[in-house]
Every structure is written in C-alpha cells, then in structure tokens.
Amino acid sequence: MSNHMKFVIGLSVLMFVPILWHFAMVFGYLGEPPQTRGEFFLRIGVIAVGFVVLSATIASAMVARNGETDIEPDEREQLIETRAERNGGWALMAGLVGLMWFAFNPMQPMDVANAALALIAAGEAVKIVSGLIYLGSRA
After folding, report:
1. Could you count the other beta carbons within 10 Å of the beta carbon of residue 92?
2. Which end of the chain is more exposed for a tag (fewer CB within 10 A), N or C?
3. CA dist 23 to 16, 60, 72, 88, 115, Å?
4. Distance between CA atoms of 36 and 21, rounded to whole angstroms?
5. Is the predicted pLDDT of residue 139 greater than 60, yes or no?
C-alpha cells in the first residue's frame, strides 16, 4: 500500500475517534451530551478544526520526510478514491432520504443534528470500507 493510501485511510479512521467520543457522550457512556445548539456546534467546530490542523501537519511531515511525489496518488489510487467517494455519497444520500422520512415524527432538533452527524460518519465508513475492498481487489 502506498504512502498516499496510508495517509488517506489513516486520516479517515482518525476522524472517527472524536465522532465516536461524541456519540459515547450522547448515549451517556462518557458524560453529558451537548444540550444546546451552541455546545453542539462548538464541539463539531473543535472536531473539524482539529481534523484540518492534524491532516495539514501530517501531510507536511510526510512531504518533508518523503518528498512531494510520495503523497500524490497514482491513476489506480485516484480511481479507487473516486469509486469509494461515490459509494460514500450514495450512502449519505440514502440516509438523508431516510432522515426526511423520520422528520415527520416529532423529533427534537438535537436528535436531527445527531442523526445528520451519524449519517456523515456512516457515509465516511462506507467510503473507507469500499476503498479497502477496491484496494484489495486490485481494481
């Protein structure tokens, strides 16, 4: 597996750590969930900024250590990423249609926000798994 694919898969898996922490708090395993819109978006903002900073730091370190061409994907890896992104997008779309179906039930706004975040995480999981499958099948 190339350094590019290790980088992409590693960052995608690393993104799940704070998301899992968030849902562990939502379900009451690790403390109190966010109760207000401000708390929710502050938490998601911190997760997003942390992810951007971490990915930029890791990418810079990889480029400094191995050179710029080492982190760029080849044609096969671009094809795999494109197919995996497509699968993740379809999973996200299907989940959003399902969320629209359940939106007619009385739901709290925080439930809708957490469901949307769960759908984004599920789409990312589909992308990772399908990318690994395509990578293993020598697509």
Report:
1. 19
2. N
3. 10, 30, 33, 20, 10
4. 18
5. no
Q: Give residue 45's pLDDT.
A: 92
Percent of the chain with pLDDT over 70: 98
pLDDT digit string (tens) for 8-30?
888 888 888 888 888 888 888 88
Q: What's the DSSP call for residue 70?
A: G
Angle at 97 between CA 87 and CA 126, to 5 degrees: 25
Q: pLDDT tens for residues 46-83?
A: 989 988 998 888 888 888 887 777 777 888 888 988 99
> Which residue range forms the structural domain that includes residue 124?
3-136
Q: Is pTM, for the whole model, over 0.85?
A: no
> How many structural domains is the chain composed of?
1
Cα-atom radius of gyration of the chain, to the nearest Å?
Answer: 17
What b/e readout covers 9-26, taking b as 16+ CB neighbours within 10 angstroms? beebeebeebbeebbeeb
Q: Write out the two tokens for 86.
A: 């497509």
